[in-house]
What does this fold into?
Amino acid sequence: MHIIQPVLFDFDTFIKLPANDRLLIVLEALDAEKLILSLERRHRTGRKGYSVRGMWAALIAGVLCQCRSIAETVRLLERDKTVRAICGFPGRDEVPTEDALGRFVKRVVERQDLLEECLERLVERLRQLLPGFGRKLVVDSTDIKAYANGHRRQPSDPDARWGAKGAGRSPEREVETGSGEAESRRGKKRDVYYWFGYKLHLLIDPVYELPVTFTVTPANVADTQQMPPLLEKAKLERPGRRPEAVIADKGYDSKSNSDLIYRAYQAAPIIPIIEKPGMQLPDICNAKGTPTCGCGLPMVYWGRDGRYLKYRCPDALGRTKCTDRFRCTPSSYGYVLKLPIGDDARRHPPVPRETKKWERLYRLRSAVERVNSRVKDLLGLRRLTLRRIAKVTVRCAFSLLVMLGSAVGMAQRSRFRELRALVV
It folds into this structure.
């Protein structure tokens, strides 16, 4: 609980705050008492002995008001009476200096575990306030540019690395021609985007478009490697937290990730399979994982039969004409194949890629792009002025705390249409 204590008889700073003030709502929602008490063990945070609670509130205000640096946060406190009063600095002469705020950030970095515990408590409150929160999850990463020149022999941020997105060419794909034959075409050339810095890996709820947990790595770390740490950090094995589906793009396609999602968390992996030449298994399945009949035609998914996925002959269903001289079965029902669910979660997931349900779930993946945009454009991660991965991680945590704190405050006030509003 954040309490404002104005100075008595100081009418210049004693102002009436609106009840719907966004900063006050966020500060009241943040359960950071454990972190603040840990920071208060050292009573002085600068030559003037600034209040720990005031410094904490000032950093939150700087993120919410889109300050790009600590210097901008100090200027915000100097010019805005309302923000000063909320943070507990009545007069301009009592505003902390830039150096004092910088030292305070270093102390918060040393207690990063307590900061992330605060984020976990906000997520747990959202599970109680929002029905179905966390039932579907999306994983993705976004670029975070370092405050350094990566072309120098010794960059000023030694933790940052070069990263790249995109590929020289998209893989070959088979296109159906009018005669029913498959024609191989080379994909169009795509540009490769390079940056020097870090990656912010997010696990979000796509329905409410809110983060669940995060990790920060150098930009050269592959996305595929970060799915297990994200799922483990979210503690999905606890009762009531198991998701129905975990959704990701092709960058996370691997047998280990699909098996982890299905076997460890009993969820459906909604991940497109990477179609590469040579991935087809003759008489077993095509590159997408769809089983094929003896003549090589992809079979038609026909629902679930207990613990099995059922596929039928496409010729018996009138979808295409069999090219074999002899039918695979004399039955008019056609050849039937049953695959055990989870036997190969990557090629044959519990929700097959041929179904409309899989397409409907995969469309939710676009929600993470909107979360990335809000975090970077509205909460200050587009242009960082910090160096070293520890400080960048804490800065990302502050942005996500503001996003989650705003959502908790709005949910507690039943203002569900403003869950994702971040404008003061």
